[in-house]
């Protein structure tokens, strides 16, 4: 496994309380608001799958499924999904998933949010590089999205 191609890591310092950051991550509707998914009326429960359509223009037809792995209150939230699964005719059900982990750490100026998405080396070779590239740039945007979301609260 090559860690430089197997995982994406990002972090951002959020000037918000741990409670507010945690709520933005694990309240499904709040998560959907900043992440870009319709998750009204849903909950994130370890061991269950949650799904919603993306809300980004041009991608509204895509249904995204999150298999919730762990919810460790105010510390760790993780789920599995099929990275960059955007072909509406593609069957991703038999592909391995990647693991997305959000970790919260106290910092003098707020909460340091660490994001790790791992498992790209198991994605089929034909999709692997593009999935890594697109998710890498996508996480850059998502870190800014959660920061803006929290600043507006």
Automatic annotation (TrEMBL):
Highest taxon listed in the record's lineage: Bacteria
Pfam families hit by this protein: AHSA1
Positions of transmembrane segments: none
Domain Activator of Hsp90 ATPase homologue 1/2-like C-terminal: residue ranges: 16-150
SUPFAM superfamilies assigned to the protein according to its UniProt record, in alphabetical order: Bet v1-like
InterPro entries: ASHA1/2-like_C (IPR013538), START-like_dom_sf (IPR023393)
CDD domains, A to Z: SRPBCC_CalC_Aha1-like_5 (cd08898)
Annotated family: Belongs to the AHA1 family.
Protein's name in the database: SRPBCC family protein
């Amino acid at each position: 496994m090559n860690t430089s191609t197997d995982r994406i890591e990002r972090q951002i310092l959020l000037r918000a309380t741990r409670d507010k950051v945690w709520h933005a991550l694990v309240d499904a509707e709040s998560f959907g608001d900043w992440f870009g998914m319709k998750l009204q009326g849903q909950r994130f429960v370890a061991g269950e799958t949650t799904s919603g359509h993306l809300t980004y223009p041009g991608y509204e037809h895509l249904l995204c499924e999150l298999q919730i792995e762990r919810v460790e209150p105010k510390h760790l939230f993780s789920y599995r999904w099929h990275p960059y699964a955007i072909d509406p005719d593609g069957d991703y059900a038999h592909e391995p998933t990647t693991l997305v982990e959000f970790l919260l750490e106290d910092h003098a100026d707020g909460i340091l949010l660490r994001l790790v998405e791992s498992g790209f080396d198991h994605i089929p070779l034909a999709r692997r590089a593009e999935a890594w590239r697109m998710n890498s740039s996508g996480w850059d945007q998502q870190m800014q999205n959660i920061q803006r979301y929290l600043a507006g609260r």
